[in-house]
Amino acid sequence: MSNLKPVQKKRLEALTYGLLYPAFLGNMIYDIILILYGLIKPQIQQNNNVNLTWFSFSSLLFITGFYVVDYLHLYVDMNRIVPLRRKSKAYIYCDIATPLLFFLAFVFVKLGIYLPAIWCIALIPCIIMYYKSTNKKNKKNISFFKGYWIVSIIVGILYSCFFGKDFLHGEKKFDVRYLFFIVASFSTYTYYVFFFYRKRAMRSDIRFIHEKNDL
Questions:
Q1: Per-residue H/E/C for the chain
Q2: What pTM value is reported for the model?
Q3: What's the rounded Cα separation, in Å, for the pair 190 and 213?
Q4: Per-residue pLDDT tens digits of the chain, which is 215 residues long
Q5: What number of other Cβ atoms are within 10 A of residue 134's Cβ?
Q6: Is 149:125 a contact under the CB 8 Å cutoff?
């Protein structure tokens, strides 16, 4: 059971949805516009010490899209289903950790540090799995994210084996396989939010919250 007081929960929720998510999203959009202009006019990119290709720029777009989908899921779906008084400390802290990982992934790609960006993306389903598993009756949710996070971690390990030496040597060459993993993660989570969850898992969460309210 959470030991957070209602006022603390309200402040943390305001911090998460009222500050962190919008602030990070605004920063991402600003950077995307600036980088896009730099790709069109290379002298602008050089003046801003940014060295990105269209492939790495595409990665930034998909990370931002991934971020927006997660924001919609938490703010629209989960906030409607889970009232503030039923949010545990773990639930709230996971909500804070998720946008931080997204933003770190974005910043790492922008800086040309790609392997840490991959690990940030790979850890996101692990965090989501942690708080989704609080409803142990929602086996469809748990099975989906169990497969999702295991595959993500395996990919992170494989990429560390393939590109770890380049990372340690400070090389900033973008490999299209980075983009492939980011697109695959974005596609998987988008499918979950807009199709799998709403058709197969949402009702179980609603029943779970109603049962807790009846206690």
A1: CCCCCHHHHHHHHHHHHHHHHHHHHHHHHHHHHHHHHHHHCHHHHHHCCCCCCHHHHHHHHHHHHHHHHHHHHHHHHHHHHCCHHHCCHHHHHHHHHHHHHHHHHHHHHHHCCHHHHHHHHHHHHHHHHHHHCCCCCCHHHHHHHHHHHHHHHHHHHHHHHHHHHHHHCCCCCCCHHHHHHHHHHHHHHHHHHHHHHHHHHHHHHHHHHHHHHHC
A2: 0.88
A3: 30
A4: 447 888 988 899 899 989 999 999 999 999 999 888 877 766 555 555 456 788 889 999 999 999 999 999 998 888 888 888 888 888 888 999 999 999 999 999 998 889 999 999 999 999 999 888 877 888 899 999 999 999 999 999 999 998 888 877 776 777 788 999 999 999 999 999 999 999 988 988 888 777 765 54
A5: 16
A6: yes
Tally of residues, the chain: 215
